[in-house]
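Homework-ish question, so no full write-ups if that breaks the rules, but can someone show me the predicted structure for this set?
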Amino acid sequence: MKFIDPHIHVTSRTTDDYEAMAKAGVAAIIEPAFWLGQPRTNVGSFQDYFSSLVGFEKFRAAQFGIRHYCTIGLNSKEANNEALAEQVMEIMPLFLAKENVVAVGEIGFDDMTALEEKYLRLQLEMAKEVDLPVLIHTPHRNKKQGTYRSMDIIEEHEIPPHLVVIDHNNEETCEEVLRRGYWAAFTIYPKTKMGNERMVEIVKKYGPERIIVDSSADWGVSDPLAVPKTGNLMLERGVPEEHVELTCYKNALAAYGQSGQFEESDWLNPEPIDQRTLFEGNSVLRGGQTPRVDKPEDDRIIQ
Amino acid sequence: MSYTPVQLLENWILRQASDAGQAWLDTQREAVATSDLKSLYMAFGFAPRKVGKADLQLTERDLNDAAEARPGWMPHAWTIDQAARVLLLMSLPSEDDAAFHATLEKLFQTAEIREQICLYQALQLLPHQELFDDRLSEGIRTNIKSIFESIAHNNPLPMELMSEQAWNQMVLKALFIGAALDPIEGLDRRVNPDLARMLIDFAHERRAAKRPIPVELWRVAAPFADEVALEDMRALFASGEQLEQSAIALALVSTACDEADVILKTNPEIAKRAESGEITWREIAQQAY
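A: Not a homework solution, just the prediction itself:
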């Protein structure tokens, strides 16, 4: 089965992860712009980070046969540094028009401060201007309030819910998110957000419509195989195959496909120009190796 | 009659673009001509969505016109969005060279892969090329082969602008990452003893690691071959694979030194094919990659 992981921070993962993801059937991924585990102190760090999301990381993923997309945005934590936030807003037009940018995100609330709200609103307007979907990060603490408040603000800005993915849902938030017509994403992240056994129960209870599974794997203890593992667990526990396909592949394709920048043919039949620029050059696998998964008996030998 | 690069690009786009794409490009070029940087940044990004990404359909005549308009310009691998992006850049006012340079640098620093390829190929047609020699040296440090090749291949600027040190790094790196040497403009003109020595060292590293030595290496090493290099070539000419033997023969023929003649006589059949022009570097490169 093919999978899309529509939320993974692969910049902080290794080539071993890419190999394992490709082997498990992950065909395409979306890397939302987020913070790096510590706050950035100047706009240049943002510029170089955004550049790596639209450039080098896309190339790196392609070496393993995985198509890489991203979302561009100022995250809620760093929105609290107003001087820096202003400068980040200024460079965003340089990135929103890039070819693999499929949404504005991940934006939203962390501590639910006034500055967080200010930059959420500004970026919602930006998304309207460039006609892109929006990816909303919901807070870890005070999640229910934060999620509802985010949706209220989106509605004030008159962005239709079918253009918005609300992420990091749980059993307490998903009903209202689905009721209001949004895409409801769930992050399978060990110990904190959502476990995959709970996820199976949610899909059984609510059905597959507008539900999206992702990993948000990053620099923390997390699992880049969370989407395939969850998909396989659903199958094992009797969720119909078409429901697995929707929640682990097709719904993400439909939601982010609204950008016009995210099409199945990109990875099933890449255009010749994309093949030339992305897949031919091969410096991650130095010395002209072809992408491969090591056989156990080869593990001791480094060619 | 001869054309300017702008006229050629306009014609090529006109042949292939939709009416809507053409109208969009005209409007954006007007905005960029007023130094509206936000329009430049957005239009530069949006170009493939508006005019498509198809390869330009260029004839022999188009390619000849290009070479006449800008010596060394070889746009046979250009795409329509690339042409549109270059026209946008050529619309940007350039009287203030520092401002022009700063705007281009901003685009380089924030470019995705195909945009970088476009920018490095565009420089040969833009004003103030001499300000971008550091940018070329920076560009060849990339890990992305297609970006490296947009500088090294079918691009007259490295030959025209690069210092010897940067040039030598570019040629060595091409061999290192498996990019062909033949499409490097000015390859034979800019050979030098330092480069030959670097390449021979590289050949010995590869041999020690039991990895193959790229056959095009001998083309650049041979004009300054010392005893060590000649000994390497003698050994490969005797026992190498056919493509290696052909490359060594061609390299030796170009040196026209006595020792080279002695080596060539050990396999007169291949030597004859190299001397008569039956073997070419272009074909060797095509077979090697």
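Now go work out the reasoning yourself. Hint: The CA atoms of residues 203 and 213 of chain B lie 6 Å apart.
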